[in-house]
Design brief:
Keywords: Guanine-nucleotide releasing factor. The protein has about 140 residues and is an all-alpha fold. Helix content is about 65%, strand content about 0%. It has a single domain, classed as Up-down Bundle (Son of sevenless (SoS) protein, Chain S, domain 1).
Length: about 140
């Protein structure tokens, strides 16, 4: 399998239906859309294509460990009335990622370490249920 050319990448990105996102969105905006795709039970309710595409091709732009660290930062920084919901969605997205691409977590120790840091952050904040979601993720 060969890497796509810049033209192929541009064509693929241009063909995506990103809803409210424009063709050039920030990583935070993209992750927000991915997180919003999950309900509180962890069901991927909508934007399945966007979530799967993000998890598949993100490493063209940002390494997997950096993406996981970004989710860790979101987890730590989330506050307000939607804090619990957003933190659950972060755990569900990570769990989904581990289930869909277990090889990525086996091949990248830094990625596994970032997930472990998030799990520890959840335990430290008394959110054992969040940590358990990550512990039980199929790999």
């Amino acid at each position: 399998m060969t890497c796509p050319t810049p033209r192929e990448i541009h064509t693929a990105v241009a063909s995506l239906a990103l809803g409210e996102l424009g063709p050039a969105c920030s990583l935070a905006q993209l992750l927000d859309k991915c997180l919003d795709a999950f309900d509180l039970d962890g069901t991927l309710c909508h934007n399945e294509y966007l979530v799967n595409m993000t998890l598949t091709v993100h490493d063209w732009v940002v390494p997997s460990a950096d993406l996981a660290r970004c989710l860790l930062a979101f987890y730590r920084e989330t506050s307000g009335e939607r804090q619990e919901q957003r933190r659950l969605q972060i755990c569900h997205l990570l769990r989904y990622w581990m289930a869909q691409q277990p090889e990525a977590f086996c091949l990248e120790p830094q990625l596994e370490q970032a997930v472990e840091e998030l799990r520890q952050a959840a335990v430290q904040e008394g959110r054992r249920g969040h940590a358990q979601l990550l512990d039980e993720a199929p790999r």
